[in-house]
Input
Amino acid sequence: MAVVANIDDTFTAAINGDRRMLARSISMIENRVDGTLRAMASLAPKRKKSAGSPRVVGITGPPGAGKSTFVNLMISEARARDQRVVVLAVDPSSPFTGGAILADRIRMEQHILDEGVFIRSLSSRGHLGGLSRAVGQVVDLIDAAGWDLVIVETVGVGQSELAVCEIADTAVVILTPESGDAVQAMKAGLLEIADIFVINKSDRAGADVLVRELELAVELDEAATWKAPVLKASAVKGDGVADVVKQIISHGDWCEGEGSFEWSERQGRGRVRTFLDLIGEDARFTAFQALNGERSELKRSLETGDSNPYRMAAEYKA
Ligand code: GDP
Output
């Protein structure tokens, strides 16, 4: 019989710096191993009260915008400052660890043997959803394990990416001149979540127009206490990267100082969402198990179309 690792021991080893156990703990979180909630509840994350260590930076933007090129440079920069870095590459659209993530891995290969770097991809495996819940838990675990910087890279600009960005202290949105106009970005709700805009591939035409459109949009948001800077970069050439890193650091400092109220509010919203995610996910998980167990008849009749999912859901909940 396989030996089932004790979740508390696994978490403790991860917190004490065992990378293999960190990887295993993350899988346990992803797979909702029994006892995860209790083990999570006994962690003592430092970020609960104030921003600081680790800094959590979210990087989002459309596919091909240059996110992984950027993340790679950010890792090098953080390592040069002797910071220990975790990268979580999140792909909500992929049920598996897909090609995009593989490409990321290859691009980040130079860091793979570095003990001060831990790279891990998370995908919306299976039908259980709850990706932002999993990311939040992993961040809390990494926090307790005392890393300096967590970079959460997400693909795309949908709802789950926005939720993931809320977990971050600093949300960086990377766009390119060809990724469409500022209006598109605003529609996707990026303006509300972006702390820093990066117009990457600014070696290409159209960058200045996009910069001006976004700057104007940021200016118009009078309520914002932090005005998101709009920075031009060309990640392949390394141009503008230092500036972005500088802004990420100053935004992090702002979260710890002048912006601590805004930071707490965002974190507070995140905790409420985590709570709701956990409750909702639990109900979903129970139903999922039932469909694969004692309610397999119901599953079959849904599959064949003999049952109507709306009626069945209403009955199931009643
Ligand atoms: P991601 O999908 O957002 O992670 O984007 P990648 O980092 O994989 O970059 C997508 C492609 O754009 C790669 O071929 C990069 O070499 C290229 N790329 C990244 N940054 C720049 C840039 O500043 N200028 C140009 N011209 N190409 C870039």
Summary: The pocket of guanosine-5'-diphosphate is lined by residues 61, 63-69, 103, 200-201, 203-204, 234-236 (CB under 6 Å). Strands lie at 55-60, 85-91, 117-123, 149-154, 170-175, 196-199, 230-232. The radius of gyration is 21 Å. The first strand starts at residue 55 and ends at 60.
